[in-house]
Specification:
- Helix content is 82%, strand content 0%.
- It is globular.
- It folds into two domains: 13-229, no CATH class; 253-484, no CATH class.
- The chain has 485 residues and is mainly alpha-helical.
- The two termini are 32 Å apart.
């Protein structure tokens, strides 16, 4: 009982903002992890082309969720802080819901009328094209529900619903994929529909107390002024991370999309790790910047950066083995791109150092400019190189785009915003160790057939890398560092 009281007192002493951050952070990790958890199941049941179709479909959903709603509903969370009274907020929510549903209804009619055109444009089956606006209605309803609850600090409810819906949809998809005899890729789509429709009734019930069905011009203008300018930024993030699948499909077809997506989903473990590291550190970041404690800031950033490099080395060296375990042989030829994608995520982690300063300065327009430029750069590189070198080069173009984005963020931070940040050379130096690691990994994979010997040598490389990166010269330093980490 005493222990329970102590734990309760500790929890009550934590600032509420930190608790809400933890809820959102945990939800983000839990939902993204499904992409990785699903690999060993769906790669064995689906063909390479079917696996490509479902990943391509998810990419189009991400893009169209922004375009077909004009990003208007994202203004709800911001308007909550500007409302004069609760009645005005209800009218704003009502206007948002009405206008968004009208837009999505028109989009649905257009998709139905021109389904053949969109099927050809997206290179997806007509049924998937027809289901896109329906799924978007479900997703947008959930997003509106979250936009209402977020400023009210209802993070626990949001987190529980997000995790429950994601994992329930995954469970249903697993059942359906074994039940369907044809078009097995539809299992994931049907599961989204089933779970989405069930949860949508709950979302409507939650929205209802904050909803008044009106359409007011001033509220519409507020939504447009807030949501529409954010479209390029929201869209550029999707473009940078996923447009390569669309372009690979255009040039090489769905089998190549499936191969690329498989390797990319394994490398995405690096993204989850980076997110875990830096989002957890955000409260400390604000503390150090506010107090101008730059020495402590640099010390911790350097340590986190080196931890990320070591994690990248682990995934580079054992990503292939992980892929061999997770999927059948038909997917294995794409495993050599995992190290390249991992390095791309390392550049993204360095970008976060300078990108966070842009957010801290509240000059978020530069976020949009940087991300949009990087996204367009990625498209340009893909147009140049995918037709010549095939789908695997998309990993290199993504790496180059993340590096370009990091450079732009550093330039903006250094010459425009002029906020304190560590030297970019300091951040890049440990990352330079990845080059010989990638080379040695290739040598080991191509020349050593004994998996136990190869595994032992790779473990030795990880230990050596750890000692070099953290400047460890004896066992005592190693023990202290491990304890401190």
């Amino acid at each position: 009982m005493n222990l329970y009281k102590r734990l309760t007192n500790i929890r009550n002493s934590i600032p509420p903002q930190i608790l809400h951050f933890g809820n959102y952070f945990g939800t983000n990790i839990a939902t993204k992890a499904i992409s990785f958890i699903s690999i060993p199941i769906f790669t064995r049941v689906l063909s390479i082309g079917d696996y490509g179709i479902i990943n391509l479909f998810s990419t189009y959903l991400g893009i169209l969720a922004i375009l077909l709603t004009l990003n208007l509903h994202t203004a709800i969370g911001r308007f909550y802080y500007d409302k004069e009274n609760d009645e005005e907020f209800r009218e704003f929510v009502g206007t948002t819901v009405a206008v968004t549903l009208i837009i999505l209804l028109i989009s649905t009619l257009i998709f139905i009328t021109f389904s053949d055109f969109f099927s050809s444009l997206f290179q997806l089956p007509i049924l998937l094209v027809l289901l896109i606006p329906i799924i978007l209605v479900i997703q947008t309803t959930g997003s509106i529900f979250n936009q209402i609850l977020q400023p009210m600090y209802q993070s626990k409810k949001i987190a529980r619903l997000a995790i429950a819906s994601s994992y329930l949809a995954f469970a249903i998809a697993v059942v359906l994929v074994f039940m369907l005899r044809k078009e097995k890729y539809m299992a994931q789509v049907y599961s989204q529909l089933i779970v989405g429709l069930v949860f949508m009734f709950y979302y409507f019930k939650g929205i209802r107390p904050y909803f008044k069905l009106v359409i007011k011009w001033n509220h519409l203008m507020y939504m447009i002024k807030y949501g529409v300018p954010m479209i390029p930024y929201a869209l550029s993030g999707v473009i940078l991370a996923q447009i390569d699948r669309v372009m690979i499909n255009s040039y090489e077809g769905k089998d190549s999309v499936g191969m690329y997506s498989f390797a990319y989903n394994i490398a995405m473990l690096m993204s989850l790790f980076v997110t875990a590291i830096y989002q957890t550190w955000i409260p400390k970041y604000f503390e150090y910047m506010k107090e101008k404690n730059y020495a402590k800031h640099d010390s911790e950033v350097d340590k986190l950066n080196r931890i990320i490099i070591v994690a990248a080395i682990c995934l580079i060296l054992f990503g292939r083995e992980l892929g061999l375990l997770l999927a059948p042989g038909k997917f294995h030829s794409s495993l050599n791109i995992i190290p390249i994608v991992v390095v791309g995520y390392v550049f993204e982690s360095i970008f976060m150092i300078y990108g966070r300063n842009i957010g801290y300065s509240k000059k978020t327009i530069y976020h949009t400019i940087v991300a949009l430029c990087a996204g367009l750069f990625n498209i340009w590189l893909n147009v140049l190189f995918i037709p010549v070198y095939g789908y695997q080069v998309a990993a290199l173009t993504t790496l180059a785009s993340y590096a370009f984005m990091t450079l732009l963020a550093w330039l903006v931070n250094t010459f425009i915003i002029k906020l304190y940040a560590p030297s970019i050379i300091t951040m890049l130096k440990p990352a330079g160790f990845l080059i010989p690691i990638i080379y040695l990994n290739s040598v080991l994979n191509n020349n050593i057939q004994n998996i136990f010997l190869a595994g032992a040598l790779k473990l030795a490389l990880i230990i050596i890398s750890f000692c070099v990166i953290f400047r460890v010269t004896n066992r005592k330093q190693f023990a202290i560092l491990i304890k401190g980490t």
